[in-house]
Amino acid sequence: KAMSDFELEQFCLKETKDKLRLRRKSLVDKLEKLNGEKLQPEIFQTLFKAYNREILNIDNHIEGPYFAKLKYYDSKEEKDEELYLGKVGFVDEKNDFLVIDWRAPISTLYYDSEIGHVSYNSPEGVKTGELKLKRQIVIEDGKLQSISDSDLMTNDELLKPYLNNNSDKRLKSIIATIQTQQNRIIRAPRKNMIIQGIAGSGKTTVALHRISYLIYQMKKFDSTVDFLIIGPNKLFLQYISAVLPDLETNEVSQYTYEEIAKEVVGEKFEVLDKNSMFYNCNKQKSNILKIKTSKRYKELIDEFLFKEQGLFLPNNIKYKDYVIFTKDELEALFEKTKNYDDIQKLLFAFAGQLSEKLRDNKYSRKIIENIKEKTETCGKDIPLKDIWAIRNLFEKGCKEFLKKQLSIKKISILNIYLKFLDFLK
Q1: pTM as predicted
Q2: Residue of 410, 419, 418 whose CA lies nearest to 307
Q3: How many Cβ atoms sit within 10 Å of the Cβ of residue 389?
Q4: What is the residue-wise DSSP string for 274-293?
Q5: What are 58-76's pLDDT values in tens digits?
Q6: Structure confidence by residue, pLDDT tens digits, 99-145
Q7: Is 394 exposed, middle or buried (0-12, 13-18, 19+ CB in 10 A)?
Q8: I need a surface site. Which of 156, 181, 262, 318 has the fewest CB within 10 A?
Q9: For the purposes of burial, counting CB atoms within 10 Å of the CB of 408, is it exposed (0-12), middle (13-18) or buried (19 or more)?
């Protein structure tokens, strides 16, 4: 008697779990052998991390290794492939794929394509073929619960098994229910994005899955510490932390805006409760929120910062007690400098411009003549060795010397803010 599709999937699930157990045992053996081998520290660390990561993934997902199945005919290879999609990818002892990672290029067929002729972008170029089967597979606690072929069911029916779950499970199950528009956002090329939607439309979960996708695609990132999530409050961050480990993004830094502000300012201060602040503003019928969200307020900030940046210029720049640039000269040249958000970067860029000026023989000769004149006015002669030292400095461009002269020891952001309040008056 031929097995039903459900029975066949039960058999495949058991076989996959058995192969994952064998794979885990092999990885443990490799780890034990690794400790006895003489390897370079970098190679040892790379292998150690890779083996441990794969063991952890098997432990975390063996009771639910995949959530979908595709049957795909590759036009170039001229053969059918049966692919199981999971939250992470797995290989067997022969390095053949047991489960395809949901972030892999071919996995987009599950989210974007219907049965029939299909194509997708791969590292080798555009691949074409025929999608013969797209099946949703629900597994709970290591047991097959249901299978549903998408050509026989509506979108609502495919979502139903997950919508019946509690909110925690729903958050973790979104990989199996990502919709076409959500998938396009998740897999979009690397660029700045704004995701808009009503409450409950999946903005947060899509953003988290985009992080997971980018980590998978951008191999140059060794870990998730290169990413940062800024949330409106601690409650929100606690909510999303439930899904982060499931996406292999559990090391992603999470901050509220207030926490980032405290870290950037670097000084101890108390942040007013936002709810109390809004309540007081409304109670007093204050226009403060209207003012602070206006274009004019932004213009005032820009105006203040432009003036404030000039205050960080030194009174002059000296070399061996000889004035190279006076305060007036620095201010005149500074006005032509491109604006930066970071004052230290701005001053270092300014150092580069001064360096280029000093490389100009005509300009540097003029400075040396000025130094001679000022020294003679004081009844002194400038030693020849000093002139050669100054010339040598100018020829090299002296960028590092100028950077040191323009380096800021410490900036008090709170003091700048207080100055800004005085400026507004």
Answers
A1: 0.64
A2: 419
A3: 14
A4: HHHHHHHHHHTT--HHHHHT
A5: 999 999 999 999 999 999 8
A6: 999 999 999 999 888 899 999 998 889 999 999 999 999 999 999 99
A7: buried
A8: 156
A9: exposed
